[in-house]
Amino acid sequence: MDVTCEVVGEGTETLLLADDATYADVCRATGYSPHEVTVLVDGSPVPEDAPVESSEVKVLRLIKGG
Amino acid sequence: MTGLALDSTQLDRYSRHIILDEVGPAGQQALLEGSALVVGAGGLGSPVIQYLAAAGVGRLGVADDDEVERSNLQRQIVHADADVGRPKAESAAEYVRRLNPDVDVEPHETWLDAGNAEDLIGGYDIVVDASDNFGTRYLVNDVARLTDTPVAHGSIYKFEGQATTLRPDGPCYRCLFPEAPEPGEIPDCASTGVLGVLPGTVGCIQATEAVKLLLEAGEVLDGRLLFYDAMDMTFETVPYRRNPECPVCGDEAIDSIEGIDYDHGCSVTAD
């Protein structure tokens, strides 16, 4: 399946994922570990082990510096 | 409120606030009667402390258990070369005392932890999260929610920053980032570097949000995360929503932070 993925601050790309892909696979396809980012669908985070059901997602990186 | 409580020196000092319709004498009085706790007197905390003090926020807490190091001075502009080795909370407090005698500054030379966070955060009208680690960020979020205290949040990494504002009736930080990564999974400024002016930009946004919260004016970054890229000089807003399943602000929210391990993942486990 094709998923349009915006990595906030980096840009938007179309990911080609397996039909049984999870949101963790979305993270990995963008080059991040699921622990480094949160995946948002319609403004809410989705569990990393949930199957991808949305064709549009945002990936937001966690940063901690102060 | 008539503004008659402002003396002639204050009318002069805050004149550029007072002539603004959105602030006026009543707004300035609200700032002078308001209080804010700044958690972290580092890169983000420096401009926050400076601008809140200059604005006349009447009681300003500064919580930091660290000491000033020379490598801090490229971005932590509330401290000076002569402050190296001094506690950051005291160095920042001295800056505030020099800047504005209207401000009652309260240095807290302590690490914010589960044992003291409720007393500290609950004692102020608002809290500004200018910390540099996930344990403190999640602790601030959780305790602020339990004490109905708004949070002006900011964080930075190399050339980019994030800011959002957490109101008691809006989504919380866990609605966006449900759990913290394990220690070491996300790099810090010491290992990757950080553009010195970056926390100035993000900290000023946090200070702006803090002032607006105290004034109860304007639209704050509630349910919106502002992403700033200094290299591209772009700002992007990411909307987010309250999560009904959020353990801290959702339908079955916690009523205490007991049992949450803020040193490892900050996860909230079910009873």
Automatic annotation (TrEMBL), chain A:
InterPro entries named among the record's database cross-references: Mopterin_synth/thiamin_S_b, SAM_domain_containing, SAMP2, SAMP2_halobacteria
Source taxon at top rank: Archaea
Transmembrane segment boundaries: none
Any Pfam family: SAMP2
Name assigned to this protein: Sulfur carrier protein
Automatic annotation (TrEMBL), chain B:
One GO MF term attached to the UniProt entry: nucleotidyltransferase activity
GO CC, any one term: cytosol
Recorded superkingdom: Archaea
Record-linked InterPro entries: ThiF/MoeB/HesA (IPR045886), ThiF_NAD_FAD-bd (IPR000594), Ubiquitin-activating_enz (IPR035985)
Keywords for the protein's UniProt record, in alphabetical order: ATP-binding, Nucleotide-binding, Nucleotidyltransferase, Transferase
Keyword Nucleotide-binding applies: yes
Ranges for domain THIF-type NAD/FAD binding fold: 14-248
NCBIfam families documented for this protein: PRK05690.1, SAMPActivE1UbaA
PANTHER family, A to Z: ADENYLYLTRANSFERASE AND SULFURTRANSFERASE MOCS3, UBIQUITIN-ACTIVATING ENZYME E1
Protein name: Adenylyltransferase and sulfurtransferase
Source species: Halobaculum gomorrense
